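2024-03-11 09:14:02 INFO worker-7 job=invfold-0412 stage=load source=structure_tokens
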């Protein structure tokens, strides 16, 4: 059936289904036939959302019909060209069904029984026992960035404040940048990568920059007579142990996955042992009992 004829038919169906030809055997309204297979109007179900215009609905259904027809034609072609052995997919279907049932059952057991809460102490204990598993593949820094007008006295004062040693100095810095800086970001004291830091700067900080190691101040000229001051408060190079705060989310997922695997293992063991006790599992070769 041509695309134009299908579209015309669909428009008619969507306007008045009762006018379409009806299959006498199934009492359904046929839309298209491919060899001995039919697609009926009733098979479309909820394919057409409410609110669509007749034209849009017809286009949507038309696309679906064409896709269905192509699939049926390919299936017919496969049936004609494959050997009987190749077409015997019963075993694969059974394996797929079994795997799907197992997946759904395990997923249900996990959703009902898995403890997904990981305390700070549990995460810390895991981190302490597996420190070699948490190595940095990129360097990290703690830094503060300030953008201010390129004026010698302001730069001098800001550099002094950036070297704060106590809470009072930190407060003074916050008050100063509020009044004098165009931009200020200390990333809430978190560890960030060099790449994250450089994303807000007009230049790149290299791993070779000595200010990283001595916790110094790096400057970048910005446009319109402004300058960036970047204070490196802490630096951890590639290959070092990852800070706990950065590793915590990974640790939580590891612990939850371990619990999940243990839950499934316990489930399988419980089902196995009960089947043996109830006589639903019996080995004719007794040595097999030791291989569970």
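2024-03-11 09:14:09 INFO worker-7 stage=emit residues=292
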């Amino acid at each position: 059936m041509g695309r134009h004829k299908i579209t015309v038919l669909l428009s008619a169906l969507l306007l008045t289904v009762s006018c379409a030809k009806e299959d006498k055997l199934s009492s359904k309204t046929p839309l298209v036939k491919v060899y001995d297979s039919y697609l009926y109007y009733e098979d479309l179900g909820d394919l057409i959302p409410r609110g669509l215009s007749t034209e849009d609905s017809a286009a949507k259904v038309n696309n679906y019909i064409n896709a269905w027809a192509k699939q049926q034609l390919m299936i017919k072609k496969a049936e004609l060209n494959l050997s009987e052995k190749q077409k015997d997919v019963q075993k694969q279907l059974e394996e797929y069904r079994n795997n799907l049932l197992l997946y759904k059952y395990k997923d249900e057991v996990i959703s009902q029984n898995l403890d997904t809460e990981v305390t700070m102490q549990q995460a810390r204990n895991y981190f302490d026992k597996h420190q070699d598993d948490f190595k940095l593949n990129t360097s990290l820094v703690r830094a503060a960035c300030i953008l201010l007008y390129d004026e010698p006295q302001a730069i001098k004062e800001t550099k002094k404040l950036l070297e704060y040693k106590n809470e009072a100095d930190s407060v003074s810095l916050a008050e100063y940048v509020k009044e004098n800086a165009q931009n200020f970001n200390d990333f809430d004291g978190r560890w960030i990568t060099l790449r994250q830091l450089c994303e807000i700067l007009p230049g790149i900080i290299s791993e070779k920059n000595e200010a990283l190691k001595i916790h110094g101040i790096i400057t970048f000229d910005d446009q319109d007579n402004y300058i960036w001051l970047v204070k490196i408060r802490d630096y951890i190079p590639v290959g070092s142990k990852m800070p706990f705060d950065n590793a915590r989310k990974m640790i939580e997922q590891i612990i939850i996955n371990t619990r999940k695997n243990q839950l499934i293992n316990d489930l399988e063991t419980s089902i196995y042992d009960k089947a043996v006790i109830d006589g639903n599992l019996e080995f004719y070769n007794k040595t097999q009992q030791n291989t569970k």
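2024-03-11 09:14:09 INFO worker-7 stage=report msg="The chain has three domains: 3-86, 90-134+243-292, 136-236."
2024-03-11 09:14:10 INFO worker-7 job finished
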